[in-house]
Amino acid sequence: MPIAVDRDQTRRFIIATVTGRVTVDDLFDFMTTQWATAGADQGIVFDARDMIVDQTANDIRVLVSRLQRRQAALHAPFAMVVSDDLAFGMARIYAALLETIGVWRVSVFRSMAEAEVWLGIQPR
Question: What is this structure's pTM?
Answer without folding.
Answer: 0.94
